[in-house]
Amino acid sequence: MSPTETPLLEARGIRKHFTINDDRGPARTLKAVDGVDLSIQAGEIVGVVGESGCGKSILGKTILRLYEPNDGELLWKGEDLTAVSGPGLKAMRRDMQMIFQDPFSSLNPRKKVHQIISQPLRVHKLGAPSELTSRTEAVMREVGINPAYGRRYPHQFSGGQRQRIGIARALALEPEFVVCDEAVSALDVSIQAQILNLLLDLRDKHGFANLFISHDLAVVKFIAERIMVMYLGRIVEQASKNDLMAEPLHPYTRALLEAFPVADPSVRHKKKQIVVGDVPSPMDPPKGCHFHPRCPLASEKCRNEYPPLKEAAPGRLVACWAVNGE
After folding, report:
1. Residue 91 — left, alpha, or beta (φ > 0 → left; ψ -120 to 50 → alpha)?
2. 110-155 tens-digit pLDDT
3. Cα separation of 177 and 239, whole Å?
4. Among residues 199, 248, 258, which one has the least CA distance to residue 227?
5. Can you say whether residue 240 is alpha, beta or left, with left for phi > 0 and alpha for psi between -120 and 50 degrees?
6. Is residue 167 assigned to a domain?
7. What is the CATH number of the domain that holds 102?
8. What's the number of CA atoms in the CB half-sphere (13 Å) around residue 219?
9. How many Å apart are CA 51 and CA 178, to the nearest integer?
10. H or E stretch covering 79
11. Residue 286 domain-assigned?
């Protein structure tokens, strides 16, 4: 990236905290996203991977302002997205869409498919009724759904077909940026491959950027160009796909790769590094590095100070005292 090139989307120190009120005592704070920096260039696919509960989905929804951030900056083509509201925000949202995890609950069961896909066009008043029909049918063909099925309801389709409908709805406005929130996790493996290839084909055709969120490292490895590893609300490592898969630097990333199955019987398996313990609660994260209770390299400094996300090698950012030095 050129030093003067403005990212399509940039987040600086984004935080999203939730206040939890229950019968267990005083209100507590859940730090779902706790100071995340990222940038995405036009047409780039960036993967975010981590265990369930690490804040990946909240990050994606906060970037789109489905959740309002508590702190930090969101820049869309250099413009402060958090300062925009009303008609201005509505206009910006034409260029930013989301494909949700569950292809059934994200579709209105009382609406027919052609109504679901054309709704974004109607909301943004893009064309006369006859034009909406032709545009809806065109995007249905692009995602592999016969336009003749447009009068059917979501429950009349399979899971893979419903996800294609969700993709069609997201792409109807021809956005520049799409967040895929676990977009294939609810699908069979063979269907996952079809949807991933479809997303790549559509990206090549339309040129939209993509933040692809998943807990499945194999899926992220297949589709992403750059990978961000998230743990308990923060990014702990960021690198190109090839660099990260060849030589992970953060102990948590290494543990994720160790758990990644190798589907080759000729490969000799070595003893794996097993991460012990569970992910700490985001309402009560450990002092210092959040990973230190499970980390085999943890030192006294790890237990007391959170490491900054620093460049450990060209193009590689790591938040680890053991990697970056104490």
Report:
1. alpha
2. 999 999 999 999 999 988 888 899 999 999 999 999 999 999 999 9
3. 21
4. 248
5. beta
6. no
7. 3.40.50.300
8. 28
9. 22
10. strand 79-80
11. yes
